[in-house]
Amino acid sequence: MMKAVYMTNKISTKTEEQKVLTLTCFSHFLSHFNMLIFPALVIPLSAHLGISIGQTIEISFWMYLMYGLTALPWGLAADKWGAKPLLALFFLGSALSCFAAGLYTDSINGLALSIMGLGIFSGIYHPAGLGLISKETKKISRKLAVNGVFGSLGIATAAVFAGFFNSYFGLQTVFVLLGLMNLSGLFLIAGYKPLPITKTNQKPQNTITSVLTPFIILLCIMMLAGVCYRGSTLTVPAYFELKNNEIFSFCTSITGLPLTTNLVATLSTSIILMAGILGQLFGGRLAEKFDLRFCYIFMHLIIIPVVFFMAKTTNLPLIVLSMAYFFFLLGTQPIENTLVAKLTPKKFLSTAYGLKFIFTFGVGALSVKAIKSIETSFGIESIFTFLGFVSILLVSVIGLLILVTSNKKIS
Question: Which pTM does this prediction carry?
Fold first, then answer.
């Protein structure tokens, strides 16, 4: 009898974890998918609105800033009211913002305001969703890695989605379809029932969670990582469109189809970002086996030479280097998110993730302004040189984290 009850509870726990992962994985996919549609449309929008690439990129500033800055209030709300109502608001608000963007593709201010709304509502996912995983599942590093795969899938497929529908159906269609995708999430969340607080998988707190200094240092690291992430994902589609002419000619000759440079560039972007999926799994496995800090610095050290070479190459070498870059950059995310969980009491996890994404996506959004300035003054290639120096600084701060926590093991 006791064995039967134990097996029933075990199955129930697995079922609930699967529901949590299904909801959070789809939400994570959409959160990044929402944010990566715009970079794929930079050059078409530039031509449509009659403004420069730098000015077009600047339209997205408030979207990316609010995506990060709203993370803390969303995290506080999730800790107080739970993830379910917050994720429902994420789906509905994002959908309405997309529909508004579809109406204002001819207006710079209207488009900027609409996608700012998209940033505000898409910002709900990370503090609410990652907090939900950390509170209601076991083997956190592995679950975060799986969840990260779907985030990477959103990052990777957004460009080709936007490129295809823009090339054949127009800008408005891209935003309307994106709105419908977000709206569909309401059906998924209707089937999720939150676990009562008394049934969550509580674990003894690691003694390091009482130390404030390591978490503050980690926030600085994640801010710099946010600059690298936002700067690279925002630049790559346009960079490929300008630098991969030989690949465009090859694809046109092989397929015989009336391809556009934007479609080929966005398809190339999706292919190289797919490497981030493998990177997420790789990073998740590392996080389970080794000290999190040394996994973290190892991944970021490899990024440094790769990003400097990206500023000097074109066509196939650029594609290969970009795949390596995003493999390791996105591969750091399950390691990073596990570090946050290890340094934070469970009841404050959503708030802690909110703080993380203020620094990662909010402060990281300042890279939009930096990119505009660098592209205007020195050319688009120099953006990757800038990101290389940011990575050097980032690795130095990870070294400081290792030094400050030298008497601890974080795994």
Answer: 0.73
